[in-house]
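Propose amino acids for all 377 sites.
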């Protein structure tokens, strides 16, 4: 049976790879056609920046525009891989079974005394391995390129984020941060102001300001830093002293979580765990981070269970049309894939984040067991 296992596993893996290539090519092609003018003008602007205002030739500009497409979509495809794994696993499993049924290979295996339950093993093994690859990608690869995933077309070709404003997020001590501009490439805040408040009355007690602040790994080094302290007694006179450094948990990663929508979805398990451990995250943001952390693991489990749920419809004892099998499998497959997609984003009130994330998988598991154990072979 090892020969048949390797053959089925190889055919299934090839179909998975082919589907990923086709979907990736389709997505990138559509984006290029829709935004061709923006890529073209961005290529001209990038050439002008490098060559002091010169204009590229048509061929040169075309090659530069193509390189910008690759630069923008290379990281995005790694992120898209995580979102498409479930769909591709189910679709590739269906295509593989159709091929095996069409060529009477299931009949040959059954005639040799091999059950359909045994034939399912290579499908499950490949699905689990692809799920493991998804975990490695989302926990090691995607977090390392997270800043590249929030760029738009105008920022393609740049290795860092465009500068943006920091508008009053808080750290673990309740201090509010405001900066006119944050540059991620140098991890620098400009025109920084830190507002410290009394925890009981929320009245302002001190304002730390600086022309510039640079992150050093555990705090911000201030340039022309000064702290204005307000007297608690009525009629008191504020006093100002110099400040060189502010130690805080409000690091560049937390800045991007607060200011860039969806950035937390690109962080790894350890990064999210550290942010939650350091504290200073508002309850709504904490719930979102917990959901992102547990939901991605639940999504991997749900994808494998969805394959298990859909497989009995395609494992056929006798050759015949497969359209009926596909129509019967569609509701369960679509439901399972929606559950996998919702796990990292949908929160269930009244349940802990880790339990709520696995509810779809727990609902799918009995269905998969019932369908698979009821398979006639």
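Proposal:
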């Amino acid at each position: 049976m090892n020969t048949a296992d390797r053959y089925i596993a190889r055919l299934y893996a090839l179909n998975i790879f082919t589907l990923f290539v086709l979907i990736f090519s389709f997505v990138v092609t559509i984006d290029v056609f829709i935004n061709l003018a923006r890529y073209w003008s961005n290529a001209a602007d990038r050439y002008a920046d490098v060559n002091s205002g010169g204009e590229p030739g048509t061929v040169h500009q075309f090659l530069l525009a193509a390189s910008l497409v690759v630069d923008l979509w290379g990281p995005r495809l790694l992120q898209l891989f995580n979102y498409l794994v479930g769909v591709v696993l189910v679709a590739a499993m269906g295509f593989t079974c159709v091929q095996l049924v069409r060529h009477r290979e299931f009949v040959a295996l059954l005639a040799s005394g091999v059950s359909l339950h045994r034939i399912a093993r290579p499908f499950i093994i490949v699905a689990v391995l692809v799920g493991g690859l998804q975990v490695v990608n989302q926990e090691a690869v995607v977090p390392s390129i997270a800043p590249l995933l929030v760029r738009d077309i105008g920022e393609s070709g740049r290795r860092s984020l465009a500068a943006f404003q920091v508008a009053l997020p808080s750290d673990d001590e309740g201090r509010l941060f405001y900066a006119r501009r944050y540059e991620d490439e140098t991890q620098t805040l400009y025109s920084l102001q830190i507002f410290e408040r009394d925890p009981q009355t929320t009245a302002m007690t001190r304002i730390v300001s600086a022309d510039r602040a640079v992150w050093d790994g555990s705090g911000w080094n201030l340039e022309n830093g000064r702290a204005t302290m307000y007297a608690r007694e009525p009629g008191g006179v504020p006093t100002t002293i110099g400040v060189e450094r502010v130690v805080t948990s409000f690091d560049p990663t937390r800045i991007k979580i607060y200011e860039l929508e969806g950035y937390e979805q690109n962080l790894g398990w350890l990064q999210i765990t550290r942010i939650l451990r350091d504290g200073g995250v508002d309850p709504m943001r904490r719930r979102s981070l917990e959901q992102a952390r547990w939901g991605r693991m639940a999504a991997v489990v749900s994808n494998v269970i969805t394959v298990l749920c859909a497989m009995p419809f395609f494992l056929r004892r006798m050759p015949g049309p497969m359209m009926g099998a596909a129509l019967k499998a569609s509701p369960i497959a679509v439901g399972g894939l929606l559950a996998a997609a919702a796990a990292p984003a949908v929160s269930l009130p009244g349940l802990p984040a880790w339990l709520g994330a696995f509810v779809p998988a727990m609902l799918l598991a009995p269905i998969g067991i019932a369908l698979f154990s009821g398979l006639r072979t």
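The chain has ten helices and eight strands. The longest helix spans residues 58-102.
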